[in-house]
Specification:
27% of the residues lie in helices and 23% in strands. The protein has 531 residues and is of the alpha+beta class. A 5-stranded mixed beta sheet has the order 15-14-16-13-17. The protein has a 4-stranded mixed beta sheet with strand order 3-12-11-10. Helix 13 runs antiparallel to helix 14.
Length: 531
């Protein structure tokens, strides 16, 4: 029996509940057909910053460790061995050693060894001759001095200081092990892994195809013969394809609440879930260039946000208000509600907030007769465009006239990483529900994914303090203090944390949707089809 999340529909209310798959032995065979929301910039997970890459390419790879794929909530307790058979910390907690699995082969037949582990993390830390073109998670490994090997089947991470959360980062779907003998350039177009599925082809704007790895080191897996992802950027067209039976599964966590109702109405036997996905919708501001180098203007924008209006329009009330960390109960590190409501802009009186915002704009030299015109950049997919339109409408109330500037996925992350924008509507997906991932990646000075150039050395000291704390209750209090300060500093104003739907046909078995990260649950090795 496998437990997965499903949808209960009562009076058209969508309520998450547990669904237990039918008993029976998994069947071998079949191609799982899924539509894909857009065309990824490349096939290299380590060089990209969107789960548009994880979903089709995570099945190609293995990690050292991984979050158990049938446990919906990621936590330290759900981390299990993958390419590592076991791991152990040194007594001073500054060395993490992995005993590696023997007999594993890359898809091209070459053996997996500790050298591949060292190569992968040397590249991620920028210490190798071969370089990634983009390295959005380099900051994850700032506390790692080096990775050393002892023979072919042991690798150790040597740290500057204790960092208990390193194991959580290594379990993310964003942390596969790459082969030493394949160049970063080839991994973008023809990825080679050790995982349950082998890469077949990637036709940009058309499709991605994988086939079963007959030599997978987990005997008897995967159950499927392969997977096909058809790229359909129009959400309604893609949903119609699912309803008509063209697809076995929707693109995970991409079905909006209104469209989910259409699915259940037209395809009542479909299994659907609604879950938090640990993706925040937020405002990014290039704070190093006028006029948004003005703290008054940034604070005015944060005060102007009517979060409940966004949630009502886009989610029919089914989304969450929070700070940087994912709100409870899905998130394990959320600020208490009473603490959140003390932050400017989070209080319930929207009119009072906007009145204060207008005063700040006037102080900065703007007003009814001198409005601020600005392009609002966003990625050209619905989950970005739709809230961007609402943001532009709300900013009119504080003398800001926004013009929508849509950017294709292949160009979006490069554009914002080089700060080639003034104001943007962004979605920040957190690959792990852990403060180390969120704080260092998105807010540390110099991080490639610190799109707003926010830099506060005092806050960075607190990053290190919470990272070293082994007492969870004490660590949470430091995390809450940091999160509150990030919102008060208008580092990256959080509008809401979304909830999204996933659907699959009733004959598809073994699907689990993660409730606190949309990046980690796509190995698909246990998925099978009963038809």
């Amino acid at each position: 029996m496998r437990s997965v999340r499903t949808l209960a529909v009562a009076a058209l209310l969508l309520l998450p509940a547990y669904h237990v798959a039918s008993a029976g032995e998994p069947k071998q065979g079949g191609i799982l057909k899924v539509y894909h929301r857009d065309s990824p910039a490349s096939a290299s997970i380590h060089e990209e910053a969107t789960y548009s890459v994880n979903i089709p390419f995570m099945p190609v790879f293995n990690n050292l460790v991984i979050y158990k794929q049938d446990v919906p909530q990621n936590s330290m307790e759900s981390i299990v061995p993958d390419l590592a058979e076991s791991w152990a910390w040194s007594s001073d907690k500054k060395k993490l050693t992995f005993k590696l699995r023997q007999g594993v082969k890359w898809h091209d037949g070459k053996p997996f060894t500790s050298a591949d582990v060292k190569c992968t993390f040397d590249m991620l830390m920028g210490k190798s001759q071969q370089k990634f073109r983009k390295n959005p998670r380099k900051s994850w490994y700032d506390e790692v001095v080096d990775v050393t090997t002892s023979g072919d089947f042991e690798a150790s991470f040597n740290l500057k200081r204790p960092q208990p959360a390193l194991l959580a980062l290594l379990a993310s779907g964003y942390t596969p092990v790459y082969p030493c003998h394949v160049s970063p350039g080839d991994m973008r177009t023809k990825p080679t892994g050790t995982g349950p599925f082998k890469f077949v082809e990637f036709k940009a704007n058309e499709s991605i195809k994988l086939t079963r790895n007959p030599d997978y080191w987990k005997k008897g897996l995967p159950h499927l013969d392969g997977m096909e992802f058809t790229i359909i950027t129009n959400r309604s067209t893609a949903i119609l394809g699912f309803i008509s039976g063209q697809f076995d599964m929707t693109f995970p966590t991409e079905v909006s609440i209104p469209l989910l109702k259409d699915v259940k109405k037209q395809s009542p036997n479909a299994v659907c879930v609604v879950e938090p996905i640990n993706v925040s919708t937020n405002i990014i501001v290039n704070s190093s260039s006028p006029p948004f180098d003005s703290l008054d203007i940034r604070r005015a924008m944060a005060l102007a946000i009517d979060r409940k209006a966004f949630i009502s329009i886009l989610f029919e009330g089914q989304a969450d208000i929070g700070g940087t960390m994912l709100p409870a109960p899905g998130g394990l590190w959320a600020m208490p509600k009473e603490m959140l409501e003390t932050i400017p802009g989070y209080g319930p009186d929207i009119n009072a907030n906007r009145e204060e915002a207008r005063k700040l704009m006037q102080k900065a030299g703007f007003g009814p007769d001198k409005r601020l015109a600005v392009k609002v950049a966003t990625r050209n997919i619905p989950i970005y465009r739709d809230p961007a339109i609402i943001l532009i409408d709300q900013l009119k109330s504080i003398y800001i006239d926004g013009e929508l500037d849509v950017v294709e996925t292949a160009n979006w992350f490069s554009k914002v990483a080089r700060k080639d924008y003034a104001l943007g509507l962004n979605l920040t997906g957190n690959a792990v529900d852990d403060p180390d991932q969120s704080f260092y990646e998105n807010y540390s000075c110099g991080s490639e994914r610190n799109y707003t150039n926010y830099c506060n050395k005092d806050i960075e000291k607190l990053f290190s303090e919470q990272s070293q704390e082994t007492d969870v209750a004490k660590r949470k209090k430091i995390v809450w203090e940091i999160d509150k300060k990030l919102q008060e500093d208008v580092a990256r104003p959080i509008i809401y944390h979304g909830r999204s739907g996933s659907c699959w046909q009733p004959y598809v078995k073994g699907i689990t949707i993660m409730v606190n990260s949309s990046y980690n649950g796509y190995r698909y090795e246990d998925v099978w089809m009963d038809k």
